[in-house]
Amino acid sequence: MLEGLRILVLEDEFLIAMDVEQICRDAGAADVVLARTLEEAEAFCSESTFDAAVVDIFLGQQSTFAFASSLKARGTPFIFASGYSDLGENAAEFADVTVVGKPYEETELVKALAASRLKA
Questions:
Q1: What is the dihedral of CA 69, 54, 111, 72, to 10 degrees?
Q2: What are the chain's domains?
Q3: In angstroms, rounded to a whole number, what is the distance separating the alpha carbons of residues 62 and 118?
Q4: How far, CA to CA in Å, does 36 sit from each of 10, 42, 44, 64, 90?
Q5: Mean pLDDT throughout 28-33?
Q6: Which residues does residue 54 pair with via DSSP β-bridges, in sequence order?
Q7: Which of 88, 90, 115 is nearest to 54 (CA)?
Q8: 88 pLDDT more than 70
Q9: What does R_g of the chain's alpha carbons equal in angstroms?
Q10: Are 85 and 99 in contact (CB under 8 A)?
């Protein structure tokens, strides 16, 4: 379902990021780039383009909503990944973005990523 795609994964938990990378590769992704901080993610996005992204809503206590807004402005489809299902005050801005809960279910994650590309 992700054949040939280049995926950005913004996740601060290393083992979770590795799991998402493997899920994406198993689904056919050509390249999966892991970013553990907002700074790394911004640097990767300034240097290259991505077909889709998986964005953890919170990196520790730090919100990723501003980064998600920048992805939206660039036209990069993405999904949120989180242990939280409530987007709070950002719910309206991201009403069209799928939130996949942790722990990930492989099929759900892949289908959500593939669907995000159809919405973009």
A1: 20
A2: 6-119 (3.40.50.2300)
A3: 29
A4: 6, 11, 11, 12, 22
A5: 97
A6: 9, 79
A7: 115
A8: no
A9: 13
A10: yes
CA distance 86 to 68: 15
Coil, strand or helix at 120: coil
User: What residue type is assigned to position 3 of the chain?
Assistant: E
Q: Is the pTM of this model over 0.70?
A: yes
Read off the DSSP letter of residue 103: S
Locate 31 and state its tokens.
Answer: 């390249």
Within 13 A of 30's CA, how many CA atoms are on the CB side?
7
Coil, helix or strand at residue 35: strand
Q: Are 78 and 54 in contact (CB under 8 A)?
A: yes
